[in-house]
């Protein structure tokens, strides 16, 4: 099993719908992150969490919310999806000392029509 | 985070060393240099990081200049599977400012 699992892998949704992307990890890491990637661009940070009670906005948090249900689970929600949220979404984890860098999931490809 | 500058793309013949440069002239004393790569649309993969000494692991070597204003990632014997986008990132090792911020990276194409 993958260390960082994202579900679903692919999703097509309609404008205005609420959608949740889920991330779970078996690394035992405290820190979790959500990034989005648009074609030809680098990854941009949406939200991050350094522990279960800590949630922080990243550079592009508008239109998104998150929930850290447990140390191992970090969910990203789009309250009312819009077409420009069509992107590849990645979850990542790291330990507090970042000894081996971040571990990324395989991504969720989201299309909003 | 300090800004980094990387070439947009590079080519390398299979079996040869791939040397990927990165400029980070505004790097602070507490910032490390990290390298990640992203193969096609997969999640980025950590490669290596360092502060001021050269580092080597099973994947690559990292050479940091003495003034720390630039660095080079070396893949000693590139293979087709090393074709990817390589990101150079500078950031504090830990603390609340230590989030990864990605630029557009260098697209490395390894050819036969």
In short:
The complex is a heterodimer of chains A (113) and B (112). Chain A has 113 residues and is mostly beta strands.
**Biggest interface pair, counts:** A-B, 29 and 22 residues
Strand content of chain B: over 45%
Number of helices of chain A: 0
Shape call of chain B: globular
Main sheet: strand order of chain B = 1-9-8-3-4
Structural class of chain A, by secondary structure, is: mainly beta
Unreliably modeled segments of chain B = none
How many strands, what sense, and barrel or not for the largest sheet of chain A?
A: 7 strands, mixed
Strand content of chain A: over 45%
Mean pLDDT of chain B: 92
Distance between the termini of chain B: 37 Å
Label the structural class of chain B. mainly beta
What does this molecule look like?
- With 113 residues, chain A is mainly β.
- In chain A, 0% of the residues lie in helices and 56% in strands.
- Chain A is built from no helices and eleven strands.
- The termini of chain A are far apart.
- With 112 residues, chain B is mainly β.
- In chain B, 0% of the residues lie in helices and 46% in strands.
- Chain B has a five-stranded mixed β-sheet, with no helix packed on it.
- In chain B, strand 3 and strand 4 form a beta hairpin.
- Chain B is globular and about 40 Å long.
- The model of chain B has no long low-confidence stretch (mean pLDDT 92).
């Amino acid at each position: 099993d993958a260390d960082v699992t994202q579900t679903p892998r692919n999703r097509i949704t309609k404008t205005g719908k609420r959608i949740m992307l889920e991330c779970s990890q078996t690394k035992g890491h405290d820190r979790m992150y959500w990034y989005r990637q648009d074609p030809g661009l680098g990854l941009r940070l949406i939200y991050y969490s350094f522990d279960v009670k800590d949630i922080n906005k990243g550079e592009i948090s508008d239109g998104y919310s998150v929930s850290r249900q447990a140390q191992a689970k970090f969910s990203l929600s789009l309250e009312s999806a819009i077409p420009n949220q069509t992107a590849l979404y990645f979850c990542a984890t790291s330990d507090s000392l970042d000894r081996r860098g971040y571990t990324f999931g395989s991504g969720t490809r989201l299309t909003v029509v | 985070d300090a800004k980094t500058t990387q070439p947009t793309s590079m080519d390398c013949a299979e079996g040869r060393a791939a040397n990927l440069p990165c400029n980070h002239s505004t790097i602070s004393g507490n910032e490390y240099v990290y390298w990640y790569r992203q193969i096609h649309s997969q999640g980025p993969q950590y490669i290596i990081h360092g502060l001021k000494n050269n580092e080597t692991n099973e994947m690559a070597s990292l050479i940091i200049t003495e003034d720390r204003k630039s660095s080079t990632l070396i893949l000693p014997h590139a293979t087709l599977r090393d074709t990817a986008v390589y990101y150079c990132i500078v950031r504090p090792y830990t603390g609340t400012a230590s989030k990864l911020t990605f630029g557009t990276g260098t697209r490395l194409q390894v050819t036969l």
